[in-house]
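task queued by scheduler; priority normal; single chain, no ligands, no partner chains; default sampling; output format set to structure tokens
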Amino acid sequence: MPRKISPHPLKWSAACALLVLVSPAAWAVPSFARQTGMACEACHTVYPELTHFGRVFKASGYVLDNLKQVRDVSPKKDELLSLASTPPLSIMLQASYTQIAQSLPDLGNPDLIGNAQNGTASFPQQLSIFYAGKIASHFGAFVQATYDDGSGTFGIDNTDLRFADMQILPGDQSLIYGVSVNNNPTVQDLWNSTPAFGFPYAASNATISPLAGTQIDGALAQSVAGVTAYVFWNESLYAELGGYRSAQQGAVNQVTGQAGPLDGSTSNVISGVAPYWRLAYEFNRGRHSAEIGIYGADFKLLPGAATGSTLQGPFNRFKDFAEDFQYQFIADQHLVSVEGTRIHETMSLDASLAAGTNAKDDLTTTRLWATYYYRRKIGGTLGIFSTTGSADAGLYPASATAQDGITMITSVITSANGLPDTRGWIAEVNYLPWLNVKLSAQYTRYTKFNGAGSNYDGSGRNASDNSTWYLLLWFAY
């Protein structure tokens, strides 16, 4: 397997022509390696982060292959069928252990005396099955179904279906163009600086999450369906435009008893179509790669069951605008990545005014991280994160109940001052005995949580009490 992949578009085009046309991958899924005949390091630094070759492979539709095909053609020699002799299936498993700095109150105890067990073993935390690879000429898929220990059920996970093609323009310049059908805004993106495949690449299901998060930052993952069209010129300039509609899993219409149409019993249904857009530029020279870009979306959400309203009334509007960047240095022994994103969201909360929120709010999330690996075996990541926003006691409530004159905590995911401000840092150390097996130790430290560093919930809990150790075994086959 070649260690260096030339970024020159003409050389890439020639290589793809030899193996039938192209298609890039989003995750380090072994079925892609079997399909292309290339080891993981062709498309990834260390999974799931993509190299430049991996980004081009993903943009091209997941169809580059080097397998024996079952073929059929028409009398006019048009291709009717091209099926790989090996089906593009893979599995992934995560097993983990999580320890929170300060135990949580035991809400299962009717007297609210004592704490819940601290130290959560998850085996598995996740178990995923993938269909990842070529379906037909110019048409490929990345489909993930996941067992989650939180729900105890299998469900649809990140999914990206792609049609793509490529043209050689005058001056030996390439143009890749395509359409993505997906269920998570940014899951189709080529860079690991955007939310769906950004750091942390794995996180515990047994932690305490802050109250606030922007919509494009995973809030609508697997509950929408989107169609976006994109172009990738000369493997440098990338532009994408499309829209999303609600496609909620498990929602049942009260009249039909079926999966639709969505009605007022369902929360956060998109009104109309939510536009999504992306613009990025990547520069490659030798072992260095740098990208800078912007992306965003405009979501109009009907709260439905969240406020007891119907889907015919006013909506809450969330306008997200984000910037991102990525730098990579890839050599035989040393790999360095520096990535970051800033997401600014403006909110018009017309549908939630009756529930006591402000008419308008804003929220800004910033994440920055740097990664180093030696020979793709030993490495780690250090990252910082920050979320700040408007004070809104209706949106970020202090939740407590009173009984017999005694105030009792009902949740530590509260904000005594109505602020969403949360910040901290993450340190992670990884060891990969093989390219498809990763052992991780991750520590998340909160310096501010839901508006304060100390006594953020009004009942004595500090931000640092939510700091977490997370040990992970992660492999794919």
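post-processing summary
- Confidence is low (pLDDT under 50) at residues 1-27, 401-409.
- The CA atoms of residues 77 and 163 lie 21 Å apart.
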